[in-house]
Design brief:
By secondary structure, the chain is α+β, with helices and mostly antiparallel strands. Helices cover 24% and strands 30% of the residues.
Length: 245
């Protein structure tokens, strides 16, 4: 297709970052492959990139590109086939009184305060634990694609916020933060099941859950949502039971 047909078309290029300390596995070096220019990545282009294993952080679209490690595996959930297990059903039932609103990407101070408490509790000492308002806004509120915030309240109190992208073939769960003091509330489980129901309601076949990392406790939980598909050698295939161990 010629540039005459699409005079505004901009080619997407990719570059590899320099190595940096891995955020998930101690003692390892990571690299990312980044898609540029950011302004050329609209909702349609981003949908195709997600199918290839890319994610985004603010306006930064990337996928793992490590020299000697393939532990980060893109995963997605075919929502039509998903059936929650007993524990997930309990978490869902426990929070049925939760009220959910879909909101645009706009700054709300109670969202930021919840985000700050979450980072301080769940990721103390990490690079995001001291994020200020500007850093929070760059990460959560900057997007060049079709994005929204899902706000979860219980008896009027803010309990959880989830950043979600709408793709051509599904939803992408970008980031979620919740009240860290309610350690046993199963907010994360409720969030995934709620996004499954939203994808079904909108006629979208997949919920993209980011990267599954079997060696990382904080990322290994995703294998509990079945049937899960993983991206291997450019193909989406069912995750087998040994992979989920």
């Amino acid at each position: 297709m010629s540039h005459r047909d699409h005079p505004q078309a901009v080619a997407i290029h990719f570059y590899a970052t320099a190595p940096y300390p891995c955020s998930y596995l101690d003692g390892r070096q990571a690299r990312s492959q980044v898609a540029i220019p950011a302004e050329a990545i609209d909702a349609a282009v981003y949908s195709q990139l997600v199918k290839l294993g890319f994610r985004r952080s603010g306006l930064y679209t990337y996928r793992p590109y490590c020299d000697s490690c393939q532990s980060c595996v893109p995963v997605r959930l075919p929502v039509a086939d998903f059936s929650p297990n007993r524990s997930q059903r309990r978490g869902w039932q426990r929070l049925q009184a939760m009220e959910v609103s879909l909101l645009p990407l706009e700054y709300r101070d109670d969202h930021y305060q919840l985000y700050h408490r979450y980072q301080q509790s769940r990721h103390a000492g990490g690079g995001m634990a001291e994020d200020n308002v500007q850093q929070y806004s760059e990460f959560i509120l900057k997007s060049g694609v079709d994005s929204m915030l899902a706000e979860f309240r219980l008896d009027g109190a803010l309990k959880m916020v989830s950043l979600i992208d709408r793709l051509g073939d599904g939803l992408s769960a970008v980031y979620t933060f919740y009240e860290p003091e309610d350690a046993k509330a199963s907010y994360g489980v409720f969030n995934v099941l709620w996004q499954v129901e939203l994808a079904r309601a909108w006629g979208l076949p997949y919920l993209y859950l980011g990267y599954w990392i079997g060696e990382c406790r904080k990322m290994a939980y995703k294998s509990q949502y079945r049937p899960l598909e993983l991206l291997r050698d450019g193909r989406w295939i069912p995750m087998q039971q040994p992979d989920a161990a």
